Amino acid sequence: MFESYWRKMGDKCTVVIAGYDSLSYFADTKNLCWFLEPKLEGAIKGLHRAVGNAAADDHHVVVGTGSSQLILAALYALSPQDEPEPISVVSAVPYYSSYPEMTDFLRSGLYKWAGDAQNLDTDGPYIELVTSPNNPDGVTREAIVVNRGQGKLVHDLAYYWPHYTPISHPADYDVMLFTASKCTGHAGSRIGWALVRDKDVARKMTKFIELNTIGVSKESQLRAAKVLGAVSDSCQRSGSLEFDNFFEYSKNLLAERWDKLRDVVKRSGIFSLPEYPPQHCLFTGELTVAHPAFAWMKCSESIEDCVKFLREHKILTRSGKRFGTEQKYVRLSMVSRDEEFNLLLQRLLAIQGRD
Amino acid sequence: MFESYWRKMGDKCTVVIAGYDSLSYFADTKNLCWFLEPKLEGAIKGLHRAVGNAAADDHHVVVGTGSSQLILAALYALSPQDEPEPISVVSAVPYYSSYPEMTDFLRSGLYKWAGDAQNLDTDGPYIELVTSPNNPDGVTREAIVVNRGQGKLVHDLAYYWPHYTPISHPADYDVMLFTASKCTGHAGSRIGWALVRDKDVARKMTKFIELNTIGVSKESQLRAAKVLGAVSDSCQRSGSLEFDNFFEYSKNLLAERWDKLRDVVKRSGIFSLPEYPPQHCLFTGELTVAHPAFAWMKCSESIEDCVKFLREHKILTRSGKRFGTEQKYVRLSMVSRDEEFNLLLQRLLAIQGRD
């Protein structure tokens, strides 16, 4: 979906890397995160200042190979090292479908998946993953079990950008995760970053990445620096053409898609979508509603297995079961290519026509 | 050390990446390793054909964020999934100093570090990491415990290239790991690759990388494809200038450094270095000796703590203890920049002068 914007930008974000550039493992030996390119750190802080979505300046920046690696790095850094039992990792239902498998696939003795944050059944320490806006349902979230004692929080803010949701306040949590994939669409670069308040936690996350991949691609970091810098620059250009401002351009695209989807869904009589309350957005200065990257669609009670039903109509979705909830919910992507999204609308419309 | 070569190559390996390139997570949905760039796969297979160091064509290629990630992916893929006890991971002393920590830092229930392969005390399944040529001592190795039953082997062949060691045969093991860091010097790119015979093992390694980082930087893959392609091309140019052939150029640099180091060490009377037997190299067609990327230096019995002794002379080394053996051994880098290497020689010479 973002490709059209970057094509319009032409060669403004082109990077040129010579054969002799960036040979070393190191980027800045004086930085706690020694493999973080100074240009990328500057671009990240500049972008958060331009958007106002996170208090970046008093946090340490840790770069990761996508935010997946940073979720694992945060679990490692926040787990007690010398306990006989692994710490419980929870997230409120519906939660990001990859959390359980990511947490448990190595059967770590440091942390283990414990399911829905609502049902946390320990008085001991735990880590809560707070995804806001939430994947899959786009809802703005706060921690659920934060006041229950020894909780540590990881805020996955991958979608806390003005094209997806109103920016209500600059987030200022202990560990905040972001990713270029969701911010600018550059998923192939595998660049995520964490803003970490505590120095020791940032150091341990850096250690995780050192043991896991000995740092993060320099080429991707340099390119992400250029792309994030271009997005920051575009935020300053208020008087120019609409598509110049990355977030406005992308918000308009998403709003248009959501309007079309809501129209088709309304006509169907079979499906329904969440409503999002209008909120004042600090970035646009307007009252806006969320336009999430995913649609969390509920199917009528008459349909038993919604994924199967939609697959029969050639629509691929992810079942609510994967997100810890009922199979009458499915997740649809709102950020696919135009052709794909239009096909989705056509096929949904065909169902409504037939049933 | 390799920088001078790449500078001489000028813009032959320059990559240009536009803002709209490589946005997707996917590289080739039909490939088992769905995030592997077809250009990189082609360059890897082409390079192994040009050098003759590994039978790549009948193996699956799995790309990783450096070979560190592939070591972990291999442990995951080769571990039994439903056993109550973790599988033992061993390597012969002296072993690569990061193996123990990489294996154990998440306290996985799938695998655990069990130390020196010579002392393996299990009749059950195990994984042996075979590093050949070995880091730290440059010795050509075979598996130690391969005939003891349920052993699985991972061959870490990071240094099995003609600038470091004679190529005696095309390696044809089940799981073979390589990395751009050691082959061409591009450590900042974090590109490693595994050649994997078994389809299921390759699929599980791919799954590990999916859960760990959802793929590998596209920018790094595209650049590595160009760099490895240039190295392959340089191998064909036998009649041209010496520095044109990457491996010959690098081998000459290393041979020169080893000569200088051996001279200084000989004069010292305090230190000694391993000798490597001359072997026929299939790549050069000559009888050559190894010129490892590290020098494994033994200190005289009179020096109790060799690292401390050398640090007092402003020489930073890694202790034999870190490699599972005695502290009278230290590892020195042979692939540092010229200035650094010359300083090392000067300081070693000064010790000899004083003692």
From TrEMBL, chains A, B:
One of its GO terms (molecular function) is carbon-sulfur lyase activity. InterPro entries: Alliinase_C (IPR006948), Ethylene_sulfur-biosynth (IPR050478), PyrdxlP-dep_Trfase (IPR015424), PyrdxlP-dep_Trfase_major (IPR015421), PyrdxlP-dep_Trfase_small (IPR015422). Keywords: Pyridoxal phosphate. One of its GO terms (biological process) is amino acid metabolic process. Residues 1-350 form the Alliinase C-terminal domain. Belongs to the alliinase family. PANTHER family: BIFUNCTIONAL ASPARTATE AMINOTRANSFERASE AND GLUTAMATE/ASPARTATE-PREPHENATE AMINOTRANSFERASE-RELATED (PTHR43795), TRYPTOPHAN AMINOTRANSFERASE-RELATED PROTEIN 1 (PTHR43795:SF15). This is Alliinase C-terminal domain-containing protein.
